[in-house]
Design brief:
It is built from 4 helices and 18 strands. The protein is of the alpha+beta class. The protein starts with a strand and ends with a strand.
Amino acid sequence: MSKKKIHFVKMAGAGNDFLVLEDAAGLQFKKLARIMCHRTNGVGADGLLILAKSKKADYRMRIINADGSEAEMCGNGARCLAAYIARNKKGTAKNFSVETKAGNIIAQARGEVAEIRLSDPRGYRPDIPLKILRKPLSVHYIDTGVPHTIIYVDNLKNINVREIAPYVRYHKKFFPRGTNVNFVEQINTRLIDARTYERGVEAETKACGTGSVAAALVTFLKSHPEKTEYPGARMNVRTQSGEVLHITFDIIKGKPQNVRLKGSACFIAEGYFFL
């Protein structure tokens, strides 16, 4: 019996790996993600990126996590898809728009470096008190297309992410969406280190684009509460993979806008998955 062949391109952005597929009739992407993203019996990835047609933008992106859930947005995934579009779609302008469930983003790519402008962050809530493992914990929340909490720590490399993060990820204060969980150590005024437990992957990943953006924005807002107008702010985030992601943004009336995320978008492999 012949098997159905599904074409894919495997890509990685700062350590997050994805399988890029183009939309096709009859494919059940949520079921497909659980099969293709499996690290042993599949190709292996953090999620699927589905490139589809859009009535609202030049292209449309769907992000299906490895567990089959659909995410509103993925920063590193969007950069990978931008590089894929720039390489494979003839006539693509330098800047093109991509529809996501979190709103339209603007993307550009050259070779294996891509930059996106995200939809404006929302819902910033600093200093939320929680009780985790019978200990008080203060977290900070912001939505950068998907929900993120930031927890500041010392000695980041020794934090037990697997033990702590699920309690925050599923905490009732973030019901029903849940939250991604970022542990952050500030190195200096322009550099922070971050480790992220991702909702949908349900594990720590080597990087998270929207999480890096969330960590950068919260760090700036907490460090500069007096700066209600600040164009051209910058912050670098060193991810668990070791790659540094570059985030730029403007503070307008005390809120971050025009947020851009820049980093690698590497082509790893191309082939067919036999379903």
